[in-house]
Design brief:
The complex is a heterodimer. Chain A is an alpha+beta fold. Chain A contains five helices and five strands. In chain A, helix 3 packs across helix 5. The longest helix of chain A is centred in the last third of the chain and has 14 residues. Chain B is of the alpha+beta class. In chain B, 32% of the residues lie in helices and 24% in strands. Chain B has a five-stranded antiparallel sheet. In chain B, a hairpin with a 7-residue loop joins strand 13 and strand 14. The radius of gyration of chain B is 18 Å and the shape is globular. The chains are: A alpha+beta, B alpha+beta. At the A-B interface, strand 4 and helix 3 of A face helix 2 and helix 6 of B.
Chain lengths: 156, 273
């Protein structure tokens, strides 16, 4: 077991973990942050995307111990109290989900995408950049609309 | 995943000591291949040496005649680096085509090169650009480095420090990818050097990345798509799997090489399959 001290959604977290524990397992099983999902577990589907020091990563392809002294943000860390993050709000308004399983990963990737492009996104870029997130229900139409709408709201 | 011990050294010297003092060590770079492989039980190190805190390995710098890319430089870093885009735009473009956004945020050049997956992108760039792999103890040319499927010239206890790329007159990469895994079914990198053209092919060869020397000779004489007419690769030397048969792969190599040559001739790299 190893001592892990990290920050999750702005709060310091300390725990004893096995080196082989994946970040997604730590988030779900130990921190009870079950918004981050395990889809494929082979780093293809993107249901497990979180931010590590503000950068989108697949938490099924990262060890929990690698987050020592780092900052992790999960879907639970986006809303400010009762106020949804603009991306969450846009997904809600545009009905950018059906079963909802891929949604947390979609939103975390979308926030990263908008921040990297400084809010300047077009449909082609959004579709290209969703390559790491798979949705089996929606056909992506409303997801793309939601991200473009949120990009407007989030424009600096 | 099997149990292992985990260490995170902060210097190259400490990393090498750990690497040489343990029985079954493995180096963890970006982990985008190694961790999935460990989950499947296909790799089971006793000691996992995490390189992510070794700052000596993340340098990316311009040299007199090219670029040095530290082993732990992420694909996203290379793809967006102004220096790389300026000096060797085809390399930045290739880095931006690896995996997906999240994989590029973690995956590293050193990890990709050391793994030598037959469908990985970077080996094609190193081979066509005539790069040098600089380890802790020696320099290895890309021609010598890539030996066979998942096999390189690295000795046990040896590790990659950086990859040194000479600049070239022009270069580019074209990839026909497997849409789910985003690995190359066929990827072709063409580089025009002062000494001649180099064509490297990934994804297709049954022994991994290779140079298509017949195409190089033809393009040396005439850098045009037509120069490739009549050239054919032997399907028996190609990989064959559920995604693409050997004859199809051999055909794709020729088509992609032709398109890339045409695009480079027109000085436009915005070609997609």
């Amino acid at each position: 077991m190893m001592r892990l001290e990290t920050e999750i959604n702005g709060k310091p977290v300390a725990a004893e973990v096995e080196p082989r524990m994946l970040l997604v397992e730590f988030l779900r099983d130990q921190c009870r942050l079950t918004g981050t999902h395990v889809g494929c577990d082979t780093s293809q589907c993107g249901a497990c995307v979180v931010h590590l020091d503000g950068v989108a990563v697949k938490s099924c392809a990262l060890l929990a111990v690698q987050c020592q002294s780092r900052k992790v943000t999960t879907i639970e860390g986006l809303a400010q109290g009762a106020a949804l993050h603009p991306m969450q709000q846009a997904f809600h308004e545009h009905h950018a989900l059906q079963c909802g399983f891929c949604t947390p990963g979609m939103i975390m990737s979308a926030v990263d995408m908008v921040e990297r492009h400084a809010g300047d996104l077009d449909e082609h870029t959004v579709r290209e950049e969703l390559e790491g997130n798979i949705c089996r229900c929606t056909g992506y139409e409303n997801i793309v609309k939601a991200i473009l709408a949120a990009a407007e709201t989030m424009r600096p | 995943m099997n149990k292992f011990d985990y260490v995170r050294p902060t210097t190259l010297a400490a990393t090498l000591d750990l690497l040489r003092a343990s029985d079954e060590p493995m180096l963890l770079a970006g982990g985008q291949t190694l961790l999935p492989t460990m989950k499947q039980g296909l790799a089971a190190p006793e000691l996992l040496i995490d390189l992510n805190a070794v700052s000596e390995l993340v340098e990316l710098s311009v040299t007199g005649d090219g670029i040095r890319v530290g082993a732990m430089c992420r694909h996203a870093t290379v793809a967006t680096s102004g220096a790389v885009r300026d000096k060797i735009p085809g390399l930045a473009e290739l880095a931006g085509m690896i995996g997906d956004v999240q994989v590029r945020n973690r995956g590293t050049i050193g990890g990709s090169v050391a793994n030598n997956d037959p469908a990985a992108d970077y080996p094609a760039a190193l081979l066509a650009l005539d790069a040098t792999i600089r380890t802790d103890s020696r320099d290895i040319s890309a021609d010598e480095f890539f030996v066979d499927l998942f096999e390189t010239a690295l000795e046990p206890g040896e590790m990659i420090r950086e990859v040194v790329f000479p600049s070239c007159r022009s270069c580019g990469y074209l990839k026909f990818r497997q849409p789910a895994s985003r690995f190359a079914i066929v990827g072709v990198f063409v580089a025009r050097h002062r000494q001649g053209v180099r064509v490297a092919v990934t994804g297709a060869g049954s022994a991994g990345v290779f140079r298509w020397t017949e195409a190089e000779a033809a393009l040396d004489g005439n850098f045009a798509q037509q120069a490739l007419t009549g050239l054919a690769l032997d399907p028996q030397q190609m990989l064959s799997d559920i995604h693409a048969g050997d004859t199809y792969r051999a055909h794709l190599v020729q088509v992609l090489t032709g398109r890339l040559v045409e695009a480079l001739g027109a000085r436009s790299l915005r070609v997609r399959t």
